[in-house]
Amino acid sequence: MPKMKTKSGAAKRFKIRAGGSVKRGQAFKRHILTKKTTKSKRQLRGMTAVHSTDTDRIRAMMPYA
């Protein structure tokens, strides 16, 4: 059986934490920022957790993570 490949797009977007949960970056922070308030842009900083219902799907895309 050949080795399973990691989906490279998922590897760039997600990181698996030690406890098994998945973290991701926030969306809506790339462009068209002039109409967004400073507060909303500040709250989009940093990483957040992927919802538990999507975790299994992302783990399947990254078999060796």
From TrEMBL:
Entry annotated with the keyword Cytoplasm: no
GO terms under cellular component: ribosome
PROSITE patterns xrefs: RIBOSOMAL_L35
Keywords attached to this entry: Ribonucleoprotein, Ribosomal protein
Domain of life: Bacteria
SUPFAM superfamilies membership: L35p-like
Pfam entry (one): Ribosomal_L35p
Family according to the record: Belongs to the bacterial ribosomal protein bL35 family.
Name used for this protein in its record: Large ribosomal subunit protein bL35
Organism: Uliginosibacterium silvisoli
